[in-house]
Amino acid sequence: MKASLRTVVLGLVVVVLSGCAVAPMPRVTLGGQAVDAYLADTMAKRSQGLQGFDGLADGEALLFVYPDERVRTFGMKDVGFPIDVVFIGTDNKVTAVVSLYVGDARKIQSPNPSRYVLELPQGWAAAHDITVGSPFTYDDGR
């Protein structure tokens, strides 16, 4: 009887913990290169951006997903490491890559309406030949 009670309790723990699992990262490619992307798909997450991050590893990014397509404005508010901001056009191609530095006060805008914007470690885009026109794919698994 003890063994079956232990089995039931263990089963309940597994069920409870499985609800706490971290959601899988979306599948993102940029210029054919796989990118491990954190997702900023709510107003709160988009407002937070990279604030509080210590940095991004090579091949990591923050993917901003918006509910609509329009011109987007970005800056370096409270971001403590340099980044590349990659704007994605409505045709899922890169429309601009802009490097920002710590303390950079500029506000940059997408040249065209965007639904997606990627923030990557500075230099990653150049190292992987990401330029205007590079393809972007995003699969949220739905």
Mean pLDDT: 84
Low-confidence stretches: 5-24
Q: Look at the helices and sheets and give the structural class.
A: alpha+beta
Count of alpha/pi helices: 3
CATH superfamily: Protein of unknown function DUF192
Concise synopsis of the structure shown:
By secondary structure, the chain is of the alpha+beta class.
Question: What does this 3D model show about the protein?
Answer:
This protein is an alpha+beta fold and 142 residues long. The chain has a single domain (23-139), classed as Jelly Rolls. The protein is 19% helix and 37% strand. The protein has three helices and nine strands; from the N terminus they run H-E-E-H-E-E-E-E-E-E-H-E. The protein has a seven-stranded mixed beta sheet. The protein is globular. Residues 5-24 have low confidence and may be disordered.
